[in-house]
Amino acid sequence: MTTILGAVVLGTPDPPALADFYRALLGWEEVDREPEWVRLRAPEQERPGLSFQLEADHTPPVWPQLPGTQQMQAHLDIQVDDLETETRRARALGATLEELQPQKNVRVLRDPHGHPFCLFLPGA
């Protein structure tokens, strides 16, 4: 049996808008677009992709986590060559920088719909 990770899927109240953010951030191409589902993939690579599905009642997780609050189930780690430049670019695209930054060579941000993601330098 062969298994392949097809995609990571993020729930969001607006799949097209969040897909547009990550398409610009990652430089990936759009494969499918519907009002309730959008799929991106890296150029020249079929899988894995990054997909966005409609979750009208999406509640962003709390960071750092606190007991009794919406917990982060997963996040994206995105390797970059220049942490400060890419952090500025992500913010210009609509990301917000978290106050708590637990590591020197990592930046914790949130996408426009509240999903945490990290930019990191090689070796971090």
From TrEMBL:
SUPFAM superfamilies, sorted: Glyoxalase/Bleomycin resistance protein/Dihydroxybiphenyl dioxygenase
InterPro entries per UniProt: Glyas_Bleomycin-R_OHBP_Dase (IPR029068), Glyoxalase_6 (IPR041581), VOC_core (IPR037523)
Highest taxon in the source lineage: Bacteria
Signal sequence residues: none
Record-annotated VOC domain positions: 4-124
The protein's name in its UniProt record: VOC family protein
Species this protein is from: Streptomyces castrisilvae
